[in-house]
Amino acid sequence: MSCGCGKDFDTGSCVIDVLKEIERAQRDVVENHCSTSCERSINDLLGESDHGRGLDTVPIILYCEDGCKPFKGFGADRKREDKIGPIVASFIFRVKSIDKNDCAVLELLLAHEQPCGYNDLKDPTEQKTKNLQATGICITVDLHCFCHVTCLPAISVFH
């Protein structure tokens, strides 16, 4: 069965179609009223609206198939060459890449003022979104495990 949720992709999965479109738009970004938040965010990113100047990221929230619960990713950075930093969690991600098997590399996005003990978040509404920043912490996910994607307004995370 074909979803056709993306403009240029029709994999049979709406989540995959939209994320592939976001990935391409983010990769191609050089420096209106839409019917969906993802479409509006993609148009803003591509500069097809008045809001799109200098934007480089469409932050997303994914929902797992099992009960359609928000997906929370975990990761850690290196403090030094031989030390692992604290484990951090986020419900908000930036699409880095999607391979031919529909596995995606997602980067955790965190607010600059996010406290270290943020791993206790129960749902995305508890996560701070002001001043979201790229963390360099990436995870790999199978996109077939998700039933829903929410796109947040396009932003700039790279300065």
UniProtKB/TrEMBL annotation:
Q: What is this protein called?
A: Spore coat protein Y
Source species, domain of life: Bacteria
Cite the entry's keywords alphabetically.
Capsid protein, Virion
Which InterPro entries would you find in this protein's record?
Answer: Spore_coat_protein_Z/Y
